[in-house]
Structure formats: C-alpha cells, structure tokens
Amino acid sequence: MRRGPDTPGWRDEARLILGISVPLTAAFVAEMGMVITDMIIVGRLGSNELAAVGLAGDWFWVLLLIGMGVISIVGVIAAQSLGAGNSDGVVEAGEQGMIAATLTSIPVMLGVWYLGPVLGLTRQDPEIVQLITDYSRVLTWAVLPALWFVTLRNYITALARSAAIGWITVAALGFNVVLNYTLVFGKFGFPAMGVVGAAYGTTIVNWLMCAALAMHVLKSAHFEKYRPRLIPRHVDRCLLKEIFRLGIPISATQFLNGAMFTVAAVMVGIIGAATLAAQQIIYSVIYLALSASAALGEAVRVRVAYGIGQRSVDASQQSAYISFVLAGITTLAAALILWIFPGTLVGIFLDTGNPENAIVSGISVELSAYGGMFLLLDGVLIVIANAIRGLRDTRSPLWISMLGYWAVGLGSGVWLCFPLGYGAAGLWWGLVAGVVFSNILMFWRFTQRIVDARHSIAIP
C-alpha cells in the first residue's frame, strides 16, 4: 500500500483509532451489560424467565437496529464533511440525524410492542410468550431515547471525541444494576415486579443516558464550532433523503444479521426450553465480546470517510487495514476465553450447583466451542463491512449478508439441525460456514471499492 504525503503513520493512526474505539467499546460493553444484567437478575427467578428476557432482548436489539442502521450513516456524512473542511455539513448531519431517528422510532416501537404476540405464532412455550409480552410492552418506551442517543454518539464519533460516551454508558450500567435489582426483587420498599421490573429499569436508564449525552453536546467547548441544535432549525429534504438512501441498506443489513441470530434462537426453542436457555447464554457472551469489533467498526467507518473527504484513499485504506488487524486480535482473545473457560462463563448466568440447571449448563458448555469459532470470524467481518460503508457503499454488505448469513449459514444450519438430526450443534456448524463465506466476499468487495475510489479521485 502506498502512503501519500497527507497520510499519517501507522502508529499515529492506530492511536487515533484506539482513542475512538476504546471509549466506544466500554460504552457497547455497558449497553450489552444492561441486557445481560437483566438476564442475570431475572435468571435467579428461573430458567423460563431467563429464556424470556434473553429472547425478548435479542428481538429488541434486532428491531432497534432498524433505526440504528439508518442513523449510523450520520457519522459517515459528518466525518467526510469534516475531512473536506465543511463545518456546516457536520452540523447539518447531526441535526438531520435527529429527525431521522425520530421518524424511524415509530416502526421500531410498534415492532417491540407486538413482539410477544408475534413470537406466540412460532410454537414457543406459552409461559415464555407471556413473560416476553409483559417485558417488551414496557421496553417499547426505551426506543426513542436509545435512537436519539445513538445519533449523538455518531456525531461525536465523527469528531473523534468519544470519551464522554464511555463514561456516561458505564455509569448508566451501574445505575441499571441497582435499579433492576430493586424493581425485580422488590427492595428498599418497592414491590417485587419480576421481569417487568427489569424492563422499567432499563427504560429509565435509557432516558437518563440520552439526557446526559445531550447536555454534554450542548455544553462542551469541544463542539462549539460544530454544535448542532437538538431540535433542528429546519428540515433539509435533500440531506434527509441521502441519510435514508444510504442508511436503509445498513438498516436492512443489520436487521438481517440480528434476525439471523434470533431466528436461530427460535429454531432452538423448538428443540426445547433448556436448549433455548443455553443458546441465550452463548449469545450473551458473543454479543458482549463483539463490542470491541462494533467499536472498531464505528471508528473505521468515520476514519475511512474522513480520508475520502481529504481525497486521500491511502489514508482510508491504512485506517481499514489497521482496524482489521485490531479486530482479529481482540476477537481471538475473546474466543480463547470462551473455549478455555466455558463452565466459568455459564456460572455467571446460572447457579451451576442447582441440579435443575444441570441440563442447561451442559448444553451451554457444548455450544461454547462453536460460539467461539463464530465469534472470531464475525468480529473481523463487522469491521470490514463498516470500512466498505465508510466508502459510501452500503448495499454490498446487504447482499453479502443475505448470501452468507442466510442462504449459506442459516440455510445449511437448519438442514443440519432438523433433517439430518444434529440438533443445535448442526445449526452452529451452518452459522460458522456462513460467516466464513461472508468474510471472503466482504474483503473482496472492500478491495474493489478501494480501486474504484482511487479511480474516482484521480478524475479531475
């Protein structure tokens, strides 16, 4: 790879990427920690409560990804404007992003509200369906503040000022633990609300997070030159159209990726409640471990876009390759923990000394081997896909996900699981095959888009 005169050295760029991604990793870990906290706390109520909150939490995030995918392009537009020295473009991206977040919250909230009845059509245990309904009806009111928070997060990330995001979210995690414990079990004079208490706690915390980040954006001197109005001054139809044009394919991709996990969970739920509970434990570990890759993905997306704004493809390519390497290192470390200490991880979620949990515990340990393989490959894939999006190609990750995750991964997994009788292990083998196939296609597409970018910039 050539390095142009405006391209920073590898060390400088690596430090900058880490400076963006480390606080975001802490934030993503804390966000996933809220869902996992709900699972750990309600898991003490029983395996049905654990399965219900795990499955409802999966679908909540999948539906939330519809809005998050659309507004994720705000960071790309803001970063490219920043690289080109267009401060007005940075501000407009933030303001129109708030409008986009509000609009996309409507279908997401409807989906979360009706989650229980829809899952009831998939032959799930009736008791689990009722618990999901109770939990999701309250969680619906966390959607709007969550999407506003993500919009502000994308804006701040584009300006490489992500430290506050980490502090706010980590603090929110601690409050979420206390609040959920209080409301689920009825401590400090509050009534015991069960799974509904966990939903109330998480919803309240999402509103507080949004308020805290909004105040930071409004008051911090770092954003004085690029400060957006949280209530936009006007609707920029052209920019809003661009956000949806580029963002909807991201939304569809993230929905398909997340839905693949949840559809796999539904398939496992057909096998039995114990297998579903085990699957949710492995999922929780994977989601938590992928936080670093998600953070690196956000960092590489804005850094690649920033390089394009500067008309330096060398800088964009260097940012991408550094992020790919960092993703491989972090996911390998997480996979090793899942492979070496599966029993310890399962013990976080269940009382392994209780004979009633022996079956769930045994299945979880067995599935951890496959989960580690998937984790290692998927972490790198997330970063490559975001590098492509930084080049304003949001459709390629969509069709690659359809082929890899669904046609190859879920298709072969279901075939191995049911007709061939390999059960949950067969399903996981299919998912691993799908992510291998997706990595090959995604890296090929990234190299093609870099060539296209060089050609485009070379044309006067």
Describe the 3D structure.
The two termini are 23 Å apart. Helix 9 packs parallel to helix 15, helix 11 runs parallel beside helix 14 (358-390) and helix 14 runs parallel beside helix 16 (423-458). Mean pLDDT is 87; it is low at 1-5. With 460 residues, the chain is mainly α. Helices cover 82% and strands 0% of the residues. The longest helix has 37 residues, at 47-83.
Give me the count of strands: 0
Order of helices and strands: HHHHHHHHHHHHHHHH
Count every helix, treating DSSP H or I runs of 4 or more residues as helices: 16
How helical, in percent, are the residues? over 70%
Tell me the distance between the termini. Answer: 23 Å
**Major β-sheet annotation:** none
How many domains in all? 1
- Strand percent estimate: under 5%
Parts with pLDDT < 50 across at least 5 consecutive residues: 1-5
Describe the global form.
Answer: globular
What gyration radius follows from the Cα positions, in whole Å? 22 Å
Q: What number is the mean pLDDT?
A: 87
Sheet/helix structural class: mainly alpha
